[in-house]
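Second attempt. The first submission of Trichome birefringence-like N-terminal domain-containing protein had a stray character pasted in from the spreadsheet, which I only caught after the job came back as garbage. Lesson logged: always re-copy from the clean sequence file. Corrected sequence (396 aa) follows.
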Amino acid sequence: MALLHFQSPFAAFQHLFALLFLLSLHHHKASCALLLSLRHHHNTLRQQRPMIHANQTNCALFVGTWIQDDSYPLYQSSNCPIIDPQFNCKMFGRPDSEYLRYRWRPLNCDLPRFNGEEFLLQMKGKTVMFVGDSLGRNQWQSLICMIYTAVPQTQTQLVRGEPLSTFRFLDYGVTISFYRAPYLVEIDVVQGKRILRLEEVDGNGDLWRNADVLSFNTGHWWEHQGSLQGWDYIELGSKYYPDMDRLAALERGMRTWANWVDSNIDRSRTKVFFLGISPSHTNPNEWNSGLTAGLTTKNCYGETAPIMSTGTTYPGVYPEQMRVVDMVIREMSNPAYLLDITMLSAFRKDAHPSIYSGDLNPQQRAKPDYSADCSHWCLPGLPDTWNELFYTALFY
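This time the job returned cleanly.
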């Protein structure tokens, strides 16, 4: 791969650091010029209520309520061969189980019961691929568990890799893959620096073309700060910035992805989905009516029940990222199906791994205010509902 589109690594090195030397002088002015109209658009969106998506005439799939249902969960973590320790809350000591016994009920309808064998028969000989960050991996593993519990005797094959991991149901010829691409656009290492290229799709996007069903997601990595930030510089318009407005960066990256999908995916053979922004629960004021008296933690730790409300009012601050995702998808030539799980997931403050994650040591578990995972989700758990909605959108 040519470095920065120049003739030699040395020339690339000189050009890159010459540009970086000037960043402190022009970064603010360049960013303002670039983002002025975008900021105006976002400010307008802030005055609007979140969009309510109803993908069927009489059934608003993504608006409804959580109800208790003792027929859930759909599988047991001990019977699934693929759950990462990060999501395996029961294995790592979560003592309560009521969070597993809730079913999403949309307004005016019920979701069809997920049938793993029917999924395999419908998808026989085909490939499903999830592309995105660890929330996409959360959903990928959930779907495999939901299917596997229906056909536990079938022959399977798991190949874990980076960036591509693949699970095959060999008797049905069905492949379900996860491709790690947290930004969907390219990130390269040049001269030891990580360059996030907002105008280039991930370099291995060719692998995505062959899937029969594609499900994309992005979001959380665009917000990371400090040591968690995934880039050293952002490339946009042949210029390099140490940082920029995060919503603007997300929008530019999303538009690059959307243009790539419109130009490269044959929609007559490939169905394209986009998973909405998965909310985090790091601020208990959002579900305690702003009251701080009596609160013992600073996040989702200790939460054992969902917010019981009809899903028409968002419980907290609606994610600005979701407005960007919604806007870009609506403007595609052939829009992806938006699996709008943001609001229904916001009610599930109880469904995160919290401190019950294999990634934590005893010292970290003793400090939940700092260590609780309130971004990912336990398996079994909420991503199973995402996949019930995915199943409904695919086959009904």
